[in-house]
Design brief:
183 residues; alpha+beta; 4-stranded antiparallel sheet; 8 strands; 28% helix
């Protein structure tokens, strides 16, 4: 007797071979896919921060008032310590003190990012970036403000990151960065 159409199917050996090939493909593709997810996240965080910097600068020019982008854990006031990863706000700084006070309009609020990601600034941009009405970045004391914000996945080993470099004229640009670690 031959096989009828209802009796066709895969044998146990054929099924095991197919599962073996599928597991090899998944094992090989997982690190590659993880790398893509990391690259997309890095790009997303970079673009969002660049957009916030551009918005702060444009709002300062448009409004004729100093506008500040600062680290904010509560999304209402500027934090006195911590990294940019905990969240940030953009606000009009009417009294030029780089601290959000009552009556100062919040332009943008950003929540904290995933705990396995880091955004940190060097000394001059560790807690805030302030734009003067002519579009230049300035510290509270009036000195020019230039610095670097680094975005990277948290790591104790060498990792790819992105640096956002803010020039003395207030322009922000991004560039890739090879980091020895990211904390």
């Amino acid at each position: 007797m031959g096989n009828t159409p209802c009796e066709r199917g895969a044998s146990l050996v054929e099924t095991l071979v197919a599962l073996g090939v599928a597991s090899i493909l998944v094992t090989t593709a997982a690190p590659w896919f993880s790398g893509i997810v990391t690259d997309v996240r890095r790009s997303s965080e970079t673009n969002e921060l660049l957009a916030d910097l551009a918005l702060a600068r444009a709002d300062a020019v448009r409004s004729g008032h100093r506008v500040v982008l600062c680290v904010s854990g509560d999304q209402a006031t500027c934090a006195s310590s911590g990294q940019w990863s905990q969240g940030r706000i953009v606000f009009q700084d009417l009294n030029n003190n780089a601290q959000r006070d009552d009556g100062e309009r919040i332009v943008v609020v950003r929540e904290s990012i995933a705990p396995d990601w880091v955004i940190k600034g060097n000394a001059s941009v560790a807690s805030y970036v302030s734009y003067h009405p002519v579009g230049r970045s300035r510290l509270v004391n009036g000195a020019f403000q230039a610095g670097t914000l680094t975005i990277c996945p948290a790591s104790d080993v060498p990792i790819k990151g992105v640096e956002i470099v803010i020039s003395s004229a207030g322009r922000a640009r991004s560039q890739p960065s090879a980091l020895s670690e990211c904390r």
